[in-house]
């Protein structure tokens, strides 16, 4: 895929950089794989606002994604690569030999007409879903399960991927997108390749309206508030601020919020690299 820049004919196009969507082959989704999606606007069941900065946005329907890849041994063909408004990566419509249709997260480089398959004894080709105990060391993978049969939980966003480092007994060491090295059961599944839309992080919306289309309302900076509203508020002129922290006083930089006795700590071999 590639990025598209605009000539500044209008102020909103001056810094606008978006995908050119050249990998997308159809604009009409598969009706049988659509589901309604309600939105709360940040309100609870009493109608009171419990989450700020949420509301508006374009209507969307949910695309039912096959994260489990449990249709084993039956080959499928990629019919189309589509845009999904609910996620950053692209999705691919797979038509299996028995006629069933399913959506999957499209791997980077997948083509219409390509055949994919899931299960044991499958070759580690792009788009195939394998058990981790059969994936070669050093392979780039995405859509990784944390528990066998649970469905993919890790490396599902645009351009994200992990790398299989080693295996020891029933666990494998996988380097995650954050840099963390984690133990994952070898009975879990993963998909070969990296998630599509790898240039997503370089997109620049160019104007506030695009955020409103996506259901995000304006966010007021803490330093522009009064001291009663935010710990960083108040002060004369530019004298306000202080240590970056949330509205509730939780530091934004360097403060660890992970519980010390969290049960999954035993599976972390190496923590992700800190920014400090």
Q: How do you describe this structure in short?
A:
The chain is mainly β and 276 residues long. The chain has one helix spanning 208-213, and strands at 3-5, 17-19, 34-35, 62-63, 76-82, 91-96, 101-105, 115-116, 129-131, 140-142, 144-145, 152-154, 162-168, 171-175, 181-185, 189-192, 268-270.
Question: Strands, helices and their partners?
Answer:
Elements: E1 3-5, E2 17-19, E3 34-35, E4 62-63, E5 76-82, E6 91-96, E7 101-105, E8 115-116, E9 129-131, E10 140-142, E11 144-145, E12 152-154, E13 162-168, E14 171-175, E15 181-185, E16 189-192, H1 208-213, E17 268-270
Antiparallel strand pairs: 1-2, 3-4, 5-6, 5-8, 6-7, 9-16, 10-13, 10-16, 11-12, 13-14, 14-15, 15-17
* Beta-strand content bin: 15-25%
Determine the number of helices (DSSP H or I, runs of at least 4 residues). 1
Q: How many beta-strand elements?
A: 17
The low-confidence parts are none
CATH topology of the domain at 20-30 and 61-201 and 264-270: SH3 type barrels
SSE string, helix = H, strand = E?
Answer: EEEEEEEEEEEEEEEEHE
CATH architectural grouping of the domain at 20-30 and 61-201 and 264-270: Roll
What is the residue-averaged pLDDT?
94
* Distance N to C terminus: 33 Å
Share in helix: under 10%
Q: Give the radius of gyration.
A: 22 Å
Categorize the overall geometry: globular
Q: What does the largest sheet look like?
A: 7 strands, antiparallel
By helix and strand content, what is the structural category?
Answer: mainly beta
Side by side, the strands of the main sheet go 9-16-10-13-14-15-17
CATH class of the domain at 20-30 and 61-201 and 264-270: Mainly Beta
